[in-house]
Amino acid sequence: MVVLNKIYTRTGDKGTTALGNGERVAKHDARVEAYGTSDELNCFVGVARLEATSATDEALARIQNDLFDLGADLCRPDMAADKDAEYPPLRVTQEQVDRLEREIDVMNSELEPLRSFILPGGRALAAHLHVCRTVARRAERLAVLLSEQTEINAATVTYLNRLSDWFFVAARMANNSGKEDVLWVPGANR
């Protein structure tokens, strides 16, 4: 359980922050960038929830919780030490990825195939979900960059990859099952 009695600690005033294992790193460290962007994504998901129907809201609530799991995973380096840790670190699992895939498949089964790229927009919820999609892609890129520098849980990258796909399909569903998608017309304004 987390207990936060005091919000400011002054420990980061010189540009460093503590990771999940207590190690201090620069606030611009690749690991901090990766889990910080997943936190940013979580905030955008919270905004999307303001427009969501109950079923979509429930799915987005699960995703928000998963994103906290993902941030906890990314902020904890040294996976080799997991087995010796007093408390096993929280790691993203394949089951979380599998759940996203199942949900994507269900949503996608109700949509007509795309014959054009779509522009982000349409209904308000769809627009918010497209923002979530792009921030998820940025978080994924940052997690991949981190994985090139040090070992991380590969499921974090897979989860973010699938999550951006989830947001894309959910945005289409929010646009009246794709009927209100805004189609890209190549060269339309030449």
TrEMBL record:
A Gene Ontology molecular function term of the record: corrinoid adenosyltransferase activity
Source species, domain of life: Bacteria
Keywords assigned: ATP-binding, Cobalamin biosynthesis, Cytoplasm, Nucleotide-binding, Transferase
Pfam families xrefs: Cob_adeno_trans (PF01923)
Any GO BP: cobalamin biosynthetic process
Subcellular location: Cytoplasm
Homology family: Belongs to the Cob(I)alamin adenosyltransferase family.
Protein name: Corrinoid adenosyltransferase
The species this protein was found in: Sulfitobacter delicatus
